[in-house]
């Protein structure tokens, strides 16, 4: 469990994180989304005990990071994959972490396998691509077999295959009762991985909830083989279809409700999907104002 309660972080008169609150429950993968400079890293650093909050409280499994008896056994953290020592090999990097954590050495090879670096363990990190460093960072985070994972921009530098691999790994971690919080500045990068979203802009939370609810907030787009008959059927079901410029119907509810109304009226649907333009729009409006110092 991760709990962030009314956390604020000021740098002089600048408020980097402004009264931020959210929770991440066991069994879920939460995406912490926002444009560059929104306050994601600062919030994660506060959770990791690296930056003190000006006010508010951030806890992992009910305790401040510094109050955890052996933190690496409770929470795996990766804040900056690119910052790993370039002169050490992947195996050496894990060996140092394993010694600090007090985990058996055999776990090093296991973790290299898990992250797909079994053949690269003997190479220096300086020769790794950013995607490989992300994998090594995730291996380090997993080393202590924690219940919680906190990853800052783990998809950064990963190719589509790497992102797919990470998705499987994190979903599997959550399916076994783990709690995952990962940040990203790209919705598209994490959309298929996360089930919850916390969206931050200019230091403040602007939206949070289940991914499905946030996406469905924009309603459903549907197209039938007989468009007028489909519209009539939706109206009979108490829904109010509006025609889009692309010729589909937009309905302000979830796809299941729309599909059921169409099926009950024996209307053949050829396309149906969530209209996630709302979330994309929210993102674009946030990304438009990156430099808050200049504001
Ligand atoms: N030590 C610091 N001193 C002054 N300002 C800081 C400090 N650390 C962060 N900031 C500012 O706080 C704001 C939030 O930064 P933060 O790194 O948390 O954003 P972010 O959402 O993680 O973005 P990015 O993906 O670019 O790291 C930025 O405007 C940043 O310049």
From TrEMBL:
Chain ranges passing through the membrane: none
Protein name: ABC transporter ATP-binding protein
Lineage: Bacteria, Bacillati, Actinomycetota, Actinomycetes, Nakamurellales
Record keyword Nucleotide-binding present: yes
Domain ABC transporter: from-to ranges: 2-227
PROSITE patterns assigned: ABC_TRANSPORTER_1, ABC_TRANSPORTER_2
A GO MF label: ATP binding
UniProt xrefs under InterPro entries: AAA+_ATPase, ABC_transporter-like_ATP-bd, ABC_transporter-like_CS, P-loop_NTPase
Presence of keyword Transport: yes
Family statement: Belongs to the ABC transporter superfamily.
Keywords from the UniProt entry: ATP-binding, Nucleotide-binding, Transport
């Amino acid at each position: 469990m991760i709990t962030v309660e009314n956390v604020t972080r000021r740098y002089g008169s600048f408020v980097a994180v402004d009264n931020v609150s959210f929770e991440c429950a066991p069994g879920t993968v939460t995406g912490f989304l926002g444009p560059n400079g929104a306050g994601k890293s600062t919030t994660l650093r506060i959770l990791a005990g690296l930056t003190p909050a000006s006010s508010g409280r951030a806890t992992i499994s009910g305790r401040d990071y510094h109050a955890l008896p052996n933190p690496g056994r409770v929470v795996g953290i990766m804040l900056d994959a690119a910052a790993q020592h370039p002169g050490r090999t992947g195996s050496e990097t894990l060996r140092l972490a394993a010694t600090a954590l007090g985990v058996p050495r055999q776990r090093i090879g296991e973790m290299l396998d898990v992250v797909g670096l079994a053949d690269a363990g003997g190479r220096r990190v300086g020769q790794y691509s950013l995607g490989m460093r992300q994998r090594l960072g995730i291996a380090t985070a997993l080393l202590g077999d924690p219940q919680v994972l906190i990853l800052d921009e783990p998809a950064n530098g990963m190719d589509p295959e790497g992102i797919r691999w990470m998705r499987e790994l994190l979903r599997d971690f959550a399916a076994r009762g783990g709690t995952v919080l990962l940040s990203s500045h790209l919705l598209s990068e994490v959309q298929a991985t996360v089930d919850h979203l916390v969206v931050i802009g200019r230091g403040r939370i602007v939206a949070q909830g289940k991914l499905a609810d946030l996406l469905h907030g924009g309603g459903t787009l549907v197209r039938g083989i007989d468009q007028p008959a489909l519209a009539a059927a939706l109206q009979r079901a108490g829904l109010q279809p509006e025609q889009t410029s692309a010729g589909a119907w937009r309905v302000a509810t979830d796809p299941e409700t729309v599909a059921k109304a169409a099926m009950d009226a024996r209307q053949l649907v050829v396309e149906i999907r969530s209209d996630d333009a709302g979330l994309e729009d929210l993102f674009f409006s946030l990304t438009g104002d990156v430099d808050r110092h200049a504001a």
